[in-house]
Description:
Structural class: mainly alpha
Distance between the termini: 10 Å
Strand content: under 5%
Largest sheet: 2 strands, antiparallel
Radius of gyration: 22 Å
Amino acid sequence: MAKYKLVFFAVFALIALFVAFLIPQANSGVLLGIILGLLVGIIAFFRIEFGIYILVFSMLLSPEIKLASVPGRDVVMRLDDFILLIVVFAWFARIAIDKSIGLLKNTPLNASVIAYTLACIIFTLKGIIYGDVNPVKSFFYVLKYVEYFLLFFMVSNVVKDEKDVKRYLSAALITLAIVTIYGYTQINSGVRITAPFEDPLGAAATAGEPASLGGYFIMALALLTAVVLNYKNKIKKLLALSGFAFIMPPFWQTLSRASYIGFGIMLLFTLFLTKKNRFMYFSVLLAAVVIVPLILPANITERVRETFQGRQIETGVGKVNFDESSMARIESWRNLITVKLPKHLLAGYGVTGVSFIDGQYFTVLGEVGIIGFALFIWMIIAILKMGYKTYKNGQTEFTKAISFGFTVSFIALLFHAITANTFIIVRVMEPFWFLAALVSVLYRENFSNVPVKSALT
């Protein structure tokens, strides 16, 4: 009981400090977020399930609030960040009162997630001590990382079985429909498609983050593809195909090259991993490869083509042209590897300790060094193994479809992360870790050797 109270009061102190930081500089948006968050907290304390439902809708449908301006990157937080912290706090409060609930249920990801989280915290503290990171900025970015993992632990604890998983995914499906419809409203606006509320409240409109929405759509498209391949019911197959077709126009109009790469990888690994209907899938994929380039709007084909225009770079097998943004990305990678990383090889500079780098793996290397990068790879392998084992041993069509879609979408996101900071992006990672938690529940149901009891009791 004492250890649960310790966690409870630690989280309470963290939220109290956070609110104390916000109130002196609070604008109307911040105050609204605090009020709504506290209201959700009261609801979640009595019915944690309702708190999670609210969180599912808020992941893509909540506004962004600018908290502070610091060198390098503004510190911003979305309303769903605050809602997540409040719901987690309500969950901890329930645990402190009723110890039979248990803090963590056993999942294949617990050890690797906790190890990587500790690395981010410890190496960032080291960076603060050595003056490599701004304490305020690093605090909020580490908090974001911790949020994602707390979301995973909470959902995997609260959700009990496949029936619960279906209910929460239904809420996620409604959110997806709203976001997709919003995407359609932007198609003829002359700008790239983004998710709702991309800019902080009261701020001037910007180009947003189309790659974020692209990563989110990749997960949805992978799940719908998995339903088509793993269900026998023709009506469900048709509904999934219709959903796939409905999402594609907004997805293409994100004009996100990282998302296009991830989408292609998702299709290829679906072909590689699927056993059922492989010939049919291959035939459809081959036809799409031939037909789709002929019917895509000019702005999409031009977006792909401009990647290979501009300066030349020697690849070892010949020279390749890249546009200016791609060259800037490559130069930042080269600078990190040859100049910055050797100075802090093992533990990195700490979270936010390196200037913005468009590429997740290079960001991880710079922030937490080789040690943290090894822990990050361990976590990736654990996620892949959990998804694939759940698919291979799934006893129902639903379990097989969800775990298969999760696995191939994760592989796609790994490629998406080559040129984007995918595992930092709130609107990709919150849905991802939510889905990972649901898959961990399905894993538990299908493996009798994984105990349901708390891992810390």
